[in-house]
Amino acid sequence: MSPIFRWCMRHGAKILFTIALVQLLVGLVPLIALLFSETGHMARNLGYSPDNSDFPFSMHLQMVFQTVVSAAFPFFGALVIDRLDRWLAARDAEPGA
Q1: How many domains does the structure of the chain reveal?
Q2: Which of 7, 13, 15 is nearest to 84 (CA)?
Q3: Enclosing domain of residue 36
Q4: pLDDT for position 74
């Protein structure tokens, strides 16, 4: 096996966690840019202004949920891998195992 493959398999949980963080940040950047676009402040874009924004608050909320859900999958994978690694290490360290 190649050294890159072995390194990736050894650090799979860390890699997935990093991917989840990057995916969350990359997903939130357009939302933040949209919130502060055109007016320079957030209130009008969230639909709190008297003239009603073109982009209602429910759409912003939906974008946040989509971003969090898309980042949750690699995070869950990292969590499972980390717990399995810890469980296997504890099982191997038990005397008489």
Answers
A1: 1
A2: 13
A3: 3-93
A4: 94
